[in-house]
Design a protein that fits this description.
Blueprint (H helix, E strand, L loop, with lengths): L4 E6 L5 H12 L3 E2 L2 H10 L3 H9 L4 H6 L19 H18 L2 E4 L3 H4 L6 E7 L2 H12 L3 H22 L13 E4 H4 L1 H16 L2
Parallel strand pairs: 1-3, 1-4, 2-3, 4-5
Length: about 210
């Protein structure tokens, strides 16, 4: 196989991004999270700040979801008034993700990547989670905030990620274990050992 891709979805505070960074170093391949916004901006000519705003909010999507609407998957022309719509911005990022999966070995964090690449044979999809207590402690230590604020931040962020994934995948559940190759409890074995498990699985899937 010429290249492989690891997608990582994660609960807030579970250490998913840290695990991605450690995997990147261990495997010698890049990882993409915010960089996808920059690449999408460079590709489309749309300001990165606009991508970032769309990435952080779901403007008006609840009403569309109630109507059973399914986001379109094609990219509209720059002349269209929908060129900077949230759905079009997502589709531009989706094309970047597919292009990465076809051209290089890399790690992609978030962005519904496991769903976007579900039909690719060179993809391993991972979901990282941890018990609430462990996530709260991690967020408190990393951000220097109180336990109460950490709880609120985790609740808000995980709800957003759930809603975002559900909207852009047409109703799929972000935490459905069947959507991933592996689901790991980062608190139970530790983040470094999560990296070892993922590396071992890569060898089993692609070399075995």
């Amino acid at each position: 196989m010429d290249n492989y891709v690891i997608t990582i979805a994660r609960g807030f505070g579970s250490g998913g991004k840290e695990i991605a960074e450690k995997l990147s170093w261990e495997l010698g391949i890049p990882y993409y999270e915010r960089r996808i916004l920059q690449m999408a901006s460079e590709h489309s000519g749309i300001a990165e700040a606009i991508f970032a705003e769309a990435d952080e909010k779901l403007k008006g999507h609840k009403f569309a979801a109630l109507l059973g609407a399914m986001p379109s998957t094609y990219i509209v022309e720059p002349s269209s008034r929908r060129f900077t719509s949230d759905v079009n911005l997502f589709n531009i990022q989706a094309n970047i993700i597919r292009s990465l999966a076809e051209s290089q070995s890399c790690i992609i964090v978030g962005k519904c990547a496991n769903s976007l690449l579900q039909d690719y044979d060179n993809v391993v999809s991972i979901y990282i989670e941890a018990p609430r207590e462990a996530c709260v402690t991690s967020v408190m230590n990393k951000m220097g905030i109180t336990e109460e604020k950490a709880h609120k931040m985790i609740t808000r962020t995980d709800k957003y990620r759930y809603d975002y994934y559900k909207f852009y995948t047409g109703g799929k559940d972000w935490r459905d274990p069947t959507a991933y190759d592996i689901t790991l409890n980062s608190d139970r074995i530790g983040r470094d050992k999560c990296v070892k498990v993922i590396c071992a699985y890569l060898k089993i899937k692609f070399d075995g």
